[in-house]
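Query structure, 76 tokens:
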């Protein structure tokens, strides 16, 4: 279950779709691309993917990554 509204955010690296993920929906381990640390199951976090990718929405969505919420906030 997602718990937040899908938003679009602009960072130095481009335009990103960002979706918060509820703890109940976080059922797998992920590795945060910013800090390299584990995001354990049951941890609220965000999922982000390019909104301005060159190869289309399908590939952008396939390349989505799970981030610690704090790490996403400080990412360039």
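Result returned for the query:
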């Amino acid at each position: 279950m997602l718990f937040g509204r899908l938003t679009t955010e602009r960072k130095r690296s481009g335009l990103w779709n960002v979706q918060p993920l509820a703890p109940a929906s976080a059922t797998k381990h992920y590795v945060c691309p910013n800090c390299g640390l584990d995001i354990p199951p049951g941890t609220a976090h965000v999922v982000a993917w390019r909104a301005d990718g060159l190869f289309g929405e399908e590939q952008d969505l396939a390349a989505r990554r799970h981030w610690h919420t704090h790490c996403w906030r400080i990412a360039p």
